[in-house]
Amino acid sequence: MSVLARTLRGMERWHPIFQTVEHEPGVWTLYDTLGKPQAVIELRRTEVGPRYRVEWAGKVLGWATSLKVAVERAYAAYVSSLGHQGGPNEPRGR
Question: pTM above the 0.85 mark?
Answer without folding.
Answer: no
